[in-house]
Amino acid sequence: xxxxxxxxHKKQIRIxxxxxxxxxxxxxxxxxxxxxxxKRATFINxxxxxxxxxxxxxxxxxxxNSCRKIDRGIHPxxxxxxxxxxEITIEQIRAIEDFVFTRPCEGRKKALxxxxxxNMNLYAQNAFLKTLEEPPPDCMLILIxxxxxxxxxTIKSRCFQIAFSPLAAEEFRLFAERLNPVNETLKAxxxxxxxxxxxxxxxxxxxxxxxxxxxxxxxxxxxKWKDGxxxxxxxxxxLVYLRDRALYALMGDESPxxxxxxxxxxxxLNEILRAYEGFLALFxxxxxxxxxxxxxxxxxxxxxxxx
Length: 307
Description:
Helices cover 46% and strands 8% of the residues. It is an alpha/beta fold. The protein has two domains: 163 residues, Rossmann fold (3-Layer(aba) Sandwich), CATH 3.40.50; 107 residues. The relative contact order is 0.11.
């Protein structure tokens, strides 16, 4: 895939191609925006275009040895550091210092991509800050995050920041049509976030959501969430579920559904909106190490209207 093959993000791509054309590529870049909207794919193409052996119009050819190696994840000058479930530690940051501060082996520039950069713990962020303060001349440092507020202000201030937005409806529709077959549940849930269409876990996660919902009707839960990420995902599905319940309260069986049950009793819209506000407040604070037992009891109380 080259820049020309990416749907949407035209402004961001125009900026990146302009930086390549002027040979003014920043030493450190921060990409921010929702998960699954194409941040990583866009910047993999930046790395490919900078190192392409047959670049045309400041875009990668997608065919040369350099492009193929980057696509396969075996290029010696490109490294991706990510951890989607656990924290990124200071040891991981220190381990990449030799890579960052050595000259490229094959390409024009080296690239270190830290995906889910918000998962760096405080010690890791402070260690990485030292690298940003004295950036290596031949290496691009690329941070990708869906939660920029969890990064130190001193890190953000030293990065060239580019914001990404979800795809427009028509762009998302064109992307979905490339997949065969299209998972309609995912398509409805993740409007504007094409990366999520590749998930194979959504049906399982929806089933788990309703299983936990049923547990809340009992005096004692069979089990709570195993970690903070599972709790946050559950709260996210809870917001979608309450959205479905609100539409059902307004429209009955004619209401559009994402994950809500098709046949369910009507409930006071005010009660549903109260629950939604409570879920939203918890969801926005879910990266702050909330106590799972307390959150469980709060959500159970918010959903009392179901009984």
